[in-house]
Amino acid sequence: xxxxxxxxxxxxxxxxxxxxxxxxxxxxxxxxxxxxxxxxxxxxxxxxxxxxxxxxxxxxxxxxxxxxxxxxxxxxxxxxxxxxxxxxxxxxxxxxxxxxxxxxxxxxxxxxxxxxxxxxxxxxxxxxxxxxxxxxxxxxxxxxxxxxxxxxxxxxxxxxxxxxxxxxxxxxxxxxxxxxxxxxxxxxxxxxxxxxxxxxxxxxxxxxxxxxxxxxxxxxxxxxxxxx
Amino acid sequence: xxxxxxxxxxxxxxxxxxxxxxxxxxxxxxxxxxxxxxxxxxxxxxxxxxxxxxxxxxxxxxxxxxxxxxxxxxxxxxxxxxxxxxxxxxxxxxxxxxxxxxxxxxxxxxxxxxxxxxxxxxxxxxxxxxxxxxxxxxxxxxxxxxxxxxxxxxxxxxxxxxxxxxxxxxxxxxxxxxxxxxxxxxxxxxxxxxxxxxxxxxxxxxxxxxxxxxxxxxxxxxxxxxxxxxxxxxxxxxxxxxxxxxxxxxxxxxxxxxxxxxxxxxxxxxxxxxxxxxxxxxxxxxxxxxxxxxxxxxxxxxxxxxxxxxxxxxxxxxxxxxxxxxxxxxxxxxxxxxxxxxxxxxxxxxxxxxxxxxxxxxxxxxxxxxxxxxxxxxxxxxxxxxxxxxxxxxxxxxxxxxxxxxxxxxxxxxxxxx
Lengths: 228, 418
Hints:
The structure holds two protein chains of two kinds.
Chain A: H1 7-18, E1 41-44, H2 49-71, E2 75-79, H3 81-86, E3 89-91, E4 97-99, E5 106-122, E6 130-143, E7 151-155, E8 163-164, E9 166-168, E10 172-175, H4 181-184, H5 186-197, H6 206-219
Parallel strand pairs in A: 1-2, 2-10, 3-5
Antiparallel strand pairs in A: 3-4, 5-6, 5-7, 7-8, 9-10
Helix pairs in contact in A: 1-5
Chain B: H1 7-30, H2 37-47, H3 51-56, E1 62-65, H4 70-83, E2 88-90, H5 98-107, E3 113-117, H6 123-130, E4 134-137, H7 145-148, H8 151-163, E5 169-173, H9 177-183, E6 187-192, E7 212-214, E8 217-219, E9 231-234, E10 237-240, E11 243-246, H10 254-269, H11 274-282, E12 293-295, E13 301-306, H12 310-320, E14 326-330, E15 357-360, H13 364-373, E16 379-380, H14 384-390, E17 396-400, H15 402-417
Helix pairs in contact in B: 1-2, 2-5, 4-10, 4-11, 6-8, 8-9, 10-11
C-alpha cells in the first residue's frame, strides 16, 4: 500500500545504508503477493478503504511470516493504514470491521471526519526528538493498557487521544505520520536501521534538517485535536 | 415554500443575475483582484441559483472533466469546433467551478455553444444544472488528497450522477478503470488513450478484488474489465470506425496525444470531420501558458510545463528523459496544489539523474530532500526564474505545480510584454 508516497520510506532506508557502504535492497511486495519471512525491515504504508481491505486479506495470510521475522530480530515501520492493520481491528467508515494482524494491541475506528494537516510528535524517551509529518486519515486508534505510543502529539491528531502511533523497542514503530516520515526525520530512519545493523555513523542531513525545521515551524500554527 | 416561478419571472431573474455578475466582475477587475470571472459567477449564482440551466438551455453544452488534461482537451475541442464554423463560448481562464461555468455562459453570444472544463468534484452539480449534450471524461488519479479526499470517492460520485441520467451521451477514457466505473452505465463512446496510470486503481472499483493488469488491458474477478473501445490512439494515430487520422500536434508529449484523442472523439460527436478536427488541433501551440516558451536574461530558451499530481509529473519526467536540457522543478503546496507533497515519492525523479537540475518553489526543501535520495545533483533557489538562471544546460525546462505555474505564467507574460 502506498497512497501517500510511503514507498519513500523504503527508499530512504535503502539509500542511508548505501551512503554508508552497507548493502541493502528494496523488495516491493505487490498487493496479493505473499510476504516472505526473510526480510530485515518491513515497511507498510497507507491506503484508501477498499485497497486497505485487500491488503488486510493479503496480510492476514502472511501474518505468521511477519511475526516470525519480527521475533527473529527483523523490524517494522507501519504508517497510517499500515499501523491500523497491525492492530487488532479496524472498523471502516461503512461500518465493516476488518480484522488486523494483532501485532500491536490497538483498535481503530473510522471517525466522523478526516484529520488532515501537519503533525508534530514529541518522541520523549524513544529518543529521536520531535518528529515532523503530515496526516490524512479518519482513524481514531486506542492502544491497550501497557502498549507504548511512539510519542506525544504536540500539533495535529495522531491516534486521536494526544498520542501517536505505537512503539516496541528494537522491533516496531507505528505512526500516523507520512511525508514520508523517514525522509523528514532521518533520526527515526537511523533508529530503525540501527536495530538491524548496530550503531551507525552520522550522515550529512543538511537539507532534511532544514526541511524539518521549516515544517516544525509551519506546524506550530495548527492546533492539537481534542478527543471527540 | 415559494411557488415555482414562471418562465418570464425566471428570465427576469436570470437577466438580473447576469448583470449583477458582470458588475461584480468589473469591480473585482478594477480593484486589481483578478479577472473577475469567479466572483462574477458567484454573484450570478447567488442572485439566480438556476442561472446555469437557463443560460445553457438549448445550447448543447459539452463539459470536459478529469484529473489531468481537462484544460487542454477543452481547448483542442474548441479549436476543432471553431475551425468548422461553430460559435463557441468556453471558460478558458481556467475558472472551472460552478461560478466559472456561470460566468462563461453569461459572457458569450447567447447562441454560442458552451464547451466547458469542469472541476472533477464540481462535476455532478454542474451536470445537474447544465443538462449537457455531451460529457467528456479524461482520467481520475490522486490529486489534492487533502481537498478532494480519496479518488475512489470522486469516481463513485460521478457514477451516481451519471446513473441518474441513463441517456447521457459520454465520451470516456477506456484506459482508466475509475473512469470506466463512472461511465459504464451511460451511452458511452469509449476512447482507448493507451495511457495506463495504474497506481490509483489497485482494487477493482466494482467488487474490491485485486485488479489484474496486463499489456493494454485490465480485468477483475467479477467481470469488470477494460471495455472495447470504438476509438483508439496508437502512437500518434487515432482510429475510429471506418477512418483514421495521424495527429501532428504542436503540443508536446504523450499526454497531449491522449488529450487530442479525447477531443477528436468529442468533435466527431459534434459531426465534425476527423481530419479537419485534427488539422485544427495541430495549430494549438500554447494552452493557458502550458508549453509557453521565452528567453531567459542570459539568452537561453526556457519552456514552462504544468504538472499537478503524481500521474502528471510521471508523464512529464518521462517526456523530458533522454534530453540534456536543464530542468527546474517547482513545488508549491498551497490549497490549489494540495498541502501534502508526500506524492513526490511516487514520482520517478531518478529520471533526472546526471543532468542539470534546479529545485525551486515555496517547498523547494521538500524537492531538495527528494532529489538527494533520488541521486540527483541540483542547485537550489526558492525563486523559479532565479533557479532557471543558475541551472546548467543549453535550454531550460521549468516544471511547476499549479499555483507556481499560474504565478510563472503571469511573470512570463509581463516579461514578454516588457
